Amino acid sequence: MTFRGPALALTAALCAAASPALAVVGGELSRDVDGPRSWTVRVETSRGELCSGAAIAPELVLTAAHCLMGGGSVSVVSLDPRFRDRRQAVIAVLPHPTFVPGTTPRTQPGADLALLRLAAPLPADIEPLSLGSGLWQGETVTMAGYGLAVENNKRTARKLRETQLVNAGNYTTANTVKVAVDTQAMGEAPGAGACRGDSGGPVLRGNGTSHDLVGIVSWSSGPLNSHVRRICGGFTAITPVNDYRSWISEASSQLLAMGRERRRGDPVPPRENSSWSWWFSR
């Protein structure tokens, strides 16, 4: 990964100030009815957690696993063509089997991914994304999410925003993620990027019109050169979906197969000797 600036300074900035990416700082309000509104949802829990998610099938949302570690019931909120909220219940959550709860972004050894099975299909105006191929250094990507537009102002959350970033390459600690930065600031000064509320949000190849999902936002960090400690607007860590394509496909099939004939709220135990991690909305 190539950055302007000392490698040790980069490592210190990412490790010391890394935070789950909970809205898009430096981005713009998304108002295109055929844009991110069509595939980006808000993920909320009954215990107050706010994240984002990507629709990948009418009944499936891909998001970040750490968003769901607090427990409680889960719901997703999509926007209608007039940008009004529509809430739907989640009946099953399936985190990636390597994800380890209770870890920090720096120490997480597994994949920060989880699939959500909805109680009913998303409305017809939501267009699920397709899983993209590998994400290469120097590529432009578009991320979208709900959350803080201003790092320390909670009132700026829950509005859909988007921004373009550039993939600066891999960042490896206990696991490996892609790191994207503002196309101008390049992670050295405050710029556009993920913030609190964006975790789980979709990252699309190019300008976002391709429907080519290449990553899911995991966490964010402040820029290298800042007079105050920041956790947003510097580096955006992305879990590349191409690395986990097989799991996403198999897990999607498992989630879609379960519960077809059960009543909502009835418990469904895991299969014997299952390697999956399951829990259900309460």
UniProtKB/TrEMBL annotation:
Biased composition (Polar residues): 272-282
Domain of life: Bacteria
Ranges where the record places region Disordered: 261-282
Keyword S-adenosyl-L-methionine: no
Peptidase S1 domain boundaries: 24-253
Keyword Disulfide bond assigned: yes
GO biological processes: proteolysis
InterPro entries per the UniProt record, alphabetical: Peptidase_S1, Peptidase_S1_PA, Peptidase_S1_PA_chymotrypsin, Peptidase_S1A, Trypsin_dom, TRYPSIN_HIS, TRYPSIN_SER
Record protein name field: S1 family peptidase
SUPFAM superfamilies for this protein: Trypsin-like serine proteases
Assigned protein family: Belongs to the peptidase S1 family.
Gene Ontology molecular function: any one: serine-type endopeptidase activity
The species this protein was found in: Bosea caraganae
Leader sequence segment: 1-23
Keywords on record: Disulfide bond, Hydrolase, Protease, Serine protease, Signal
